[in-house]
UniProtKB/TrEMBL annotation:
<dbReference type="GO" id="GO:0051213">
    <property type="term" value="F:dioxygenase activity"/>
</dbReference>
<dbReference type="GO" id="GO:0016705">
    <property type="term" value="F:oxidoreductase activity, acting on paired donors, with incorporation or reduction of molecular oxygen"/>
</dbReference>
<keyword id="KW-0001">2Fe-2S</keyword>
<keyword id="KW-0408">Iron</keyword>
<keyword id="KW-0520">NAD</keyword>
<keyword id="KW-0411">Iron-sulfur</keyword>
<dbReference type="InterPro" id="IPR043266">
    <property type="entry name" value="RHO_NdoB-like_C"/>
</dbReference>
<dbReference type="Pfam" id="PF00355">
    <property type="entry name" value="Rieske"/>
</dbReference>
<dbReference type="GO" id="GO:0004497">
    <property type="term" value="F:monooxygenase activity"/>
</dbReference>
<dbReference type="InterPro" id="IPR001663">
    <property type="entry name" value="Rng_hydr_dOase-A"/>
</dbReference>
<dbReference type="InterPro" id="IPR036922">
    <property type="entry name" value="Rieske_2Fe-2S_sf"/>
</dbReference>
<feature type="domain" description="Rieske">
    <location>
        <begin position="66"/>
        <end position="164"/>
    </location>
</feature>
<protein>
    <submittedName>
        <fullName>Aromatic-ring-hydroxylating dioxygenase, alpha subunit-like protein</fullName>
    </submittedName>
</protein>
<dbReference type="GO" id="GO:0051537">
    <property type="term" value="F:2 iron, 2 sulfur cluster binding"/>
</dbReference>
<dbReference type="InterPro" id="IPR015881">
    <property type="entry name" value="ARHD_Rieske_2Fe_2S"/>
</dbReference>
<dbReference type="InterPro" id="IPR015879">
    <property type="entry name" value="Ring_hydroxy_dOase_asu_C_dom"/>
</dbReference>
<comment type="similarity">
    <text>Belongs to the bacterial ring-hydroxylating dioxygenase alpha subunit family.</text>
</comment>
Length: 452
């Protein structure tokens, strides 16, 4: 299976607009330099609440970035599809007849309704239920009811689905971007790929999805979730105290080496971040997964640094809104739904070589901990909703937030790729918002004057 990675879809922003001219006022730019002090560790709460900033995010953060779409295990034969979002743009991800994975804007070119309303499945064509325009797996318009009613200048070849111009995969994870000429996905990931491999490259068979996709809605800005997964081990002992007690044998206290962990935090150049405890006896939490795992083989394949670090317990975000937790195989996307709401979409990944009973044990463990009603997930959602709920207050909104933990501690430690800080640090959070600030103040490809 391949993914598109060339100028396959000039239909992105080069679609014919005829005499249409959008007023510049509809895309008013805001300078966000004064909202993020990454060097001093301060953040203005307007980044979570302002509607104009949110609309600028959609065109300058989400439109140019590589965004997670799906897992390759969701596509086995031509016509398999999965519907998702890139920012707030609905898209269809599907396998065409040449077994290439492609993605299209899920909007009919006639009156704009979605041409696919199912979450996933298999089909030969995508047909709009409004007026019946139908598109094939290559995005071409193949059927127009009452075709004779259109002028002679009407050509079906001009009105195919808008295609996501760049789709690429990394170890089973499929990403797409609206930018027709982005940096390659591997370059965008940079050193983050090394940390991803600790979850995705346990053996040559790769990973598969079990249990489908779980979806739920939270009150809170998407960045609250994305930054926490990039940078925040600090909240674990306080926010998840009850969960840690529940997982501790009756009559005992959580072991001190669990409560007071030491480790590292990766600070990526493109806003990525990962934090993880480091210990020679790091292990998977679920007993069946732990008993099945050949740690010696993993050390031979991945090296001691990954097995003792990001292989198991930890948290990570690929900027802007894809996050994962290696210990339970959880991957998720924080879909923005306005400045105050997000939709969480979560998958459980397991090694393809896992036997069925081990896969099921990992799936259940993920649901119990970080599923929609998981004992850890509920704590996180409550925190994000609480922060968002009070951030609209006039005085509250003007009080800056402190991101100074570990300020100045970033360095190349010689063991882990890229710059790292301490486990308890805001370094990756500062890096996340520094990259957000850069994108927000940089015209994206669709705003730049064409070269002549």
């Amino acid at each position: 299976m391949t993914a598109t990675a060339g100028p396959a879809a000039d239909r992105v922003t080069a679609t014919p607009r005829g005499a249409l001219r959008r007023p510049a006022e509809l895309a008013r730019d805001l300078d966000v330099s004064g909202l993020v002090d990454a060097e001093g560790g301060l953040l203005d709460r307007a980044v979570f609440t302002d509607g104009s900033l949110y609309r600028q995010e959609l065109r300058r953060v989400f439109a140019p970035s590589w965004l997670f779409l799906a897992h390759t295990d969701q596509f086995h034969k031509p016509g398999d599809f999965f519907t998702t979002y890139m920012g707030e743009d609905p898209v269809i991800v599907t396998m065409d007849r040449g077994r290439t994975v492609r993605a299209y804007l899920n909007s009919c070119r006639h009156r704009g309704a979605r041409v696919c309303r199912a979450d996933s499945g298999a089909t030969r064509n995508f047909t709009c239920t409004y007026h019946g325009w139908s598109y094939d797996l290559a995005g071409e318009l193949v059927s127009v009811p009452n075709r004779d009613g259109y002028p002679g200048s009407f050509r079906t070849g001009d009105w195919g689905l808008v295609e996501v111009p760049q789709v690429a995969s990394y170890r089973g994870l499929i990403f797409g971007t609206w930018n027709p000429e982005p940096v390659p996905l591997t370059e965008y990931l940079g050193d983050m790929a090394w940390y991803l491999d600790a979850m995705l490259d346990h053996d040559p068979d790769g990973t598969v999805v079990v249990g489908g996709v779980h979806k739920w809605t939270l009150d809170g800005n998407w960045k609250l979730a994305a930054e926490q997964f990039a940078t925040d081990w600090y909240h674990v002992n306080m926010s998840h105290a009850s969960a840690l007690m529940l997982l501790t044998p009756e009559g005992r206290r959580p072991r001190d080496e669990i409560v007071h962990r030491t480790g590292r935090q990766y600070v990526g150049d493109n806003g990525h971040g990962a934090g993880f405890p480091v210990h020679p006896k790091n292990r998977f939490d679920e007993r069946a997964v732990h008993d099945w795992t050949d740690y010696a083989a993993l050390r031979a394949r991945l090296g001691d640094a990954r097995v003792e670090g990001p292989l198991t317990n930890g948290h990570a975000t690929v900027f802007p809104n894809f996050s994962y937790l290696p210990v339970n195989g959880s991957i998720r996307v924080w879909h923005p739904k306005g400045p105050d709401r997000m939709e969480v979409w979560a998958w459980t990944l397991v090694d393809r070589s896992m036997p069925p009973e081990v896969r099921e044990a990992q799936r259940l463990y993920n649901l119990r901990t970080f599923g929609p009603s998981g004992i850890f997930e509920q704590d996180d959602g409550e925190n994000w909703s609480e922060v968002q709920a009070i951030s609209h207050g006039f005085i509250t909104n003007q009080v800056p937030l402190n991101y100074q933990m570990g300020l100045g501690s970033e360095r190349h430690d010689g063991t882990y790729p890229g710059r790292t800080s301490e486990l308890y640090s805001d370094a990756a959070g500062r890096g996340f918002y520094a990259h957000w600030r850069e994108l927000m103040n940089t015209p994206a490809w669709h705003e730049q004057e064409p070269t002549r």
